[in-house]
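Appendix B, Record 12. Input sequence as logged:
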Amino acid sequence: MPSINRRQWIQQAVTAALIPTTLATSTSTALATEAESPPNPFALQFTIDKGFSADLSPQFQRKLVQAILDIIQKHYNQNSLPVWSVSFKEANLPPRLESISHWLVKGCEQHRAIYPVDPVWIMAQMMLESFFYERAISWASAVGVCQFIRPTAQSYQMVCAGDRAEHRHPPFLKPEYAKSLDDYYQFRRELSRYRDKNWQKALEREECLKLMAAGDLAKIGQRLQENDNYYAAKAHYEAQIKRSRNEYRDFLRLNSAGKSILKDSTALAALDERLTHEKPVPAMVQMLAEHLRARKGNMLIAAAGYHAGLSRTKAQSLYEPYGRIPVIQSTVDYLSKIIVIYHELRHRL
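Logged structural output:
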């Protein structure tokens, strides 16, 4: 059997990610055995055994940092970096990656008893999450290099902007915005309750056609008014969600502006510990270790749970111990990109 090239391998890996990992692994293993082909130098494994022991040596850390820098220089050297919107040189990534790798190793050592993790996979996932930008803020108000939303961050004992009373007073800038994340979650809950209670007021196409065919003009007028009221109320909630989210983003950006994680990590931690490396990176390791334990070492499903929620990865029968990739396009896209980054990193190591 001729050896496959890297592009072919990536295509195969992404395809395999769309079906249960165990089935894909057993099938590929059987084919390899039958053909008696030599080991594929680009082959990757997406399940971790509980006895796995990662290389966490200083030499490995240096190689991992250099591998990431090689990838970024190769593909982004002439353009602004994703998330950062600045050049590779302006981002000053080397010391940031050294700090991240330090806390990554600490987390791997600290949480190994939960389940061993692959630090290369975590770096690949973190690169996709934030491109290692500590002030990254997502549309869902996830913050930092590991992109924790507030409820998850708080469950791992991290202080978030707005949690402390002093955040709501000077010298913090726009202190009235410190409570905006509370408003954001409140409006989201209210919108969810409103939709659950009033969804039937939305006028669907089939109902409209039936009313028109029946010639019931009075009913059509009533339903159109109910439909307009439903969408007007929904738009009101959505506007409040957007406003409160933008205010919270402004609060974070204004109060973290001009502060560098390399020099001002204490000041950033006083604002929001998600803006630093010391707590978020080990917390990401812990969360993925917990997911791996729950899904029998399946890295794809552990990462899918990080993105979409572990409860959405439940499976049945043969696949129950390992879980399944949820049928969510953004999660499938998320995993396919991590696989590519992971492959590129492993190839350089």
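Residues 45-160+272-348 form a domain with the Lysozyme fold (CATH 1.10.530.10).
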